[in-house]
Amino acid sequence: KQEVTQIPAALSVPEGENLVLNCSFTDSAIYNLQWFRQDPGKGLTSLLLIQSSQREQTSGRLNASLDKSSGRSTLYIAASQPGDSATYLCAVRGNTGGFKTIFGAGTRLFVKA
Amino acid sequence: NAGVTQTPKFRILKIGQSMTLQCTQDMNHNYMYWYRQDPGMGLKLIYYSVGAGITDKGEVPNGYNVSRSTTEDFPLRLELAAPSQTSVYFCASSNPWGQTYEQYFGPGTRLTVT
Hints:
- The structure holds 2 protein chains of 2 kinds.
- By secondary structure, chain A is mainly beta.
- Chain A has no helices and 11 strands.
- In chain A, strands 2, 4, 5, 9, 10 and 11 form a 6-stranded mixed β-sheet that branches.
- The model of chain A has no long low-confidence stretch (mean pLDDT 93).
- Helices cover 0% and strands 50% of the residues of chain B.
């Protein structure tokens, strides 16, 4: 059974710092991995999606990497800003059993001005 | 193009009552999903559908029912509401074209059962 873990659960950094959020999964038979942002009381916004055959994806100040063999993904945020404060969730989609998606519990990020 | 819409935004139910959470998408996506999110937790899949007339159970289907009569709509039915169903419910859809299945989410329905 796929399990997805995100460490740390919460993170507080000063504005301008580069930071890395971690996501690990137990079953490497994945179809893709998707990183989301969730603001308090809001829905999820897709940030980056990495297919199982890819190693990384980039969008602006965000870079997501995937190492399927070790069951790990990282989300790198460069030059963090207070507006980046949110909860970041990773979600792993399996490649069998109906392509079900399993979510991590998220990392709550706070960027101090 | 509204994306994924959900109604209602908030609802309070008494124990034993029933209700339907509505979800509609206008992106012509085949795949649709219902998740619940408990405080401080990730999302758990309740039910999903790969097309009109086809539904299947996710991780936590007990106490819920779904139907998918059209591509656009995927309602979630709660029968005999229980306090354990207090949660935020999210509907999502995804597009198999290009084979990415990237998921797009609605704004959520916050449900309290007392």
